[in-house]
Amino acid sequence: MSTDVRSILVRAARDEARRDGSRTIEAEHVLLALAGMRESSAAQLLTEEGLSEEAIRTALNREWEQSLAVAGIAVRMGLLPEATPDRGHDPHIGESTKLLLKRAMDAPPKLGPGRIGPMRILVGLLDTDRGRVARTLDAAGVDRATLHTKAREALASGNR
C-alpha cells in the first residue's frame, strides 16, 4: 500500500465519489476523505470543529436540500433513494478538486518537491468562500474563517 498521502486521498476520495454515484471526484469527496484519515492532524482538526465523517455527510445532505429549495424544489433526504454506486466506473478529478489542489500547492509555506499532506489539502479546501464545501460548512454552523486560520497555523507550524 502506498504511503503517499496524495495517493491515499485520491483513492479515498474516489471511493467517496463512487459511493455518491458521481463521475467526478469533487471537493466534498476530498473533505470526506480527509475526515476519514482519523490519525492525521487535519482529521483531528475537523473533529475538534465537530466535523466527523457522519457530521459532514449530514451537512452535505442539508446543503443539498437547501440548494434545491432555492430552485423551488422541496425534498427530504430520508424520502429519496440512496445513490447507486457505479463500481465499474473510475471517477476522474473534477474541477473543484483541481482548484483546491492548486490552492494547496500555493499555500505558504511554499513547497519544494515532495508530497502534499492532509493539512495542506485542508488549507486548499478551505481557501474559498464559494462552492459546495463552503455551503456545507455554513450549513454545519462552522466558522470557516476560524477553521481556515487554524489549518494555516497548523501548516505553518509543520503539520503537513
From TrEMBL:
<keyword id="KW-0677">Repeat</keyword>
<dbReference type="Pfam" id="PF02861">
    <property type="entry name" value="Clp_N"/>
</dbReference>
<dbReference type="InterPro" id="IPR036628">
    <property type="entry name" value="Clp_N_dom_sf"/>
</dbReference>
<protein>
    <submittedName>
        <fullName>ClpA/ClpB-like protein</fullName>
    </submittedName>
</protein>
<feature type="domain" description="Clp R">
    <location>
        <begin position="1"/>
        <end position="158"/>
    </location>
</feature>
<dbReference type="InterPro" id="IPR004176">
    <property type="entry name" value="Clp_R_N"/>
</dbReference>
